[in-house]
Amino acid sequence: MKNCPFCSPDVHNSVFARSDNFLAIYNIAPVLPGHSLIIPKKHIESILVLTEAEMLEMTLFAGKVTRLLLHVFKSDGFNWSIQDSEAAGQSLAHLHVHIIPRLNGDLPKPGDWYPLIQNNYSEILDSQKRQRLSISQMQKIVTCLREEASQMGLFHN
Ligand SMILES: [Zn+2]
Q1: Rounded to the nearest whole angstrom, what is the distance from the C-alpha of residue 146 to the centroid of ligand 1?
Q2: What is the chain's pLDDT, residue by residue, as a tens digit (157 residues)?
C-alpha cells in the first residue's frame, strides 16, 4: 500500500528471515537491542483477517525468530506485542508483532518497554528524536542475523 513503510521496497534492507508469507525485520530505531518485527508480506491490517494456516505460520515463524534473537543477543527473556486497531494504539496500519529480547535489569521496571514502543512509531515515521541506527550499524546487525537465520533454515527466497 502506498505510503506504508512496511510495503516499501526499502524494507528489504532490514529483512533477516522469511517464511512463505511473513518477514522478520530489524527495527531501525530499536527500543532495546534485538528489537525486531514480524510482518506479513501482504498489506494486512489486523491479525483477525489471517487464515488459520497463516496464523499458525506466523506464530511458528515468530517463535523461531525469537529463539534466534535470544541466542544472538544472549537474552534472559522477551516481550511479544501486537497493537491491533487504533483503539489499542496501532499507529501503523500493517500488522506487526514486536519481538523485544530482554536482559535482567535492562530497564528500571520490566514493563517500561511499552511507552517506549508507543513513542517508537512517530519516530520511525517522521522524526529523528529517537536515535536511529546508522546504515552501517544496521547492515552489520542484519548481516549477522541473516547468517544465523540461514543456519536455522529461516532464510529462503
Ligand atoms: Zn503495508
Answers
A1: 22
A2: 888 999 999 899 999 999 999 999 999 889 999 999 999 999 999 999 999 999 999 999 999 999 999 999 999 999 999 999 999 988 889 999 999 999 999 999 999 998 888 776 655 544 455 568 888 999 999 999 999 999 988 875 5
CA of 74 to the centre of ligand 1 (A): 31
- Contact at 8 Å (CB) between 2 and 93? no
C-alpha cell at 114: 511499552
* CA pair distance 148, 157, nearest whole angstrom: 16
Ligand 1 centroid to residue 143 C-alpha, Å: 24
Is the pTM higher than 0.85?
yes
12 has catalytic annotation: no
Given the residues 35, 94, 96, 98, the one annotated as active site: 96
The CA-to-CA distance between both ends of the chain, in Å, stands at 22
